[in-house]
Amino acid sequence: MSLTNKNVVFVAGLGCIGLDTSKELVKRDLKNLVILDRIDNPDAIAELKAINPKVTVTFFPYDVTAPLAETAKLLKCIFSQFKTVDILINGAGILDDHQIERTIAVNYTGLVNTTTAILDFWDKRKCGPGGIICNIGSVTGFNAIYQVPVYSGSKAAVVNFTSSLAKLAPITGVTAYTVNPGITKTTLVQKFNSWLDVEPKVAEKLLEHPTQTTQQCAKNFVKAIELNKNGALWKLDLGTLEP
């Protein structure tokens, strides 16, 4: 699928993997890249605009833990401004098993809420045009890091939720797939806490394994979007893309 002239909404598009993926996306001559993120970063937005001035980059402040009603209100504003959205990327994530409720809220509940809210505009049962959802999971969604069971469980939930969305495509007209990064050099994995401190040095031990850069991950992330395979579970690990 060509991304030329597409309108893309990217939740957490200024994060570590998110920002490098946004840079790859604007190179594809999108029409609009709409970034929803908790913290504004004018320098990053300016950098994205400079990479490809033909792409309109717009920022909206958004905390993915917001209630469904607030998310729906924001999406209504976005659709009124841009008329159509072709792709929604749910990219928010945290890794800290001390923060149990927030981990579930950011990694899973927020993703469900943005998906639920956009279905109001996309669902073909409401005469919507359909759409594409790309959810960021993790290889822990199908191969848990047992020292962080809350994080791993939240990502397994993303994988299963997205698989269900893909099977519902004949009803809703909305297709979905996950991109699942392996260990990537981000601030997420520099220092984090294990559940009940079962492994005090979990971050150090994880980083003993081979890792990939955010740039490597981002390039394959966008390749997966271009492949646009409903129901796919893409593994993005060590600079490779494989089902």
Automatic annotation (TrEMBL):
SUPFAM superfamilies: NAD(P)-binding Rossmann-fold domains. This is Alcohol dehydrogenase. Its EC number is 1.1.1.1. One of its GO terms (biological process) is alcohol metabolic process. Homodimer. Belongs to the short-chain dehydrogenases/reductases (SDR) family. It catalyses: a secondary alcohol + NAD(+) = a ketone + NADH + H(+); a primary alcohol + NAD(+) = an aldehyde + NADH + H(+). GO terms for cellular component: cytoplasm. The keyword Oxidoreductase applies. It comes from the Eukaryota. PANTHER family: 15-HYDROXYPROSTAGLANDIN DEHYDROGENASE [NAD(+)], ALCOHOL DEHYDROGENASE-RELATED. One of its GO terms (molecular function) is alcohol dehydrogenase (NAD+) activity. Keywords: NAD, Oxidoreductase.
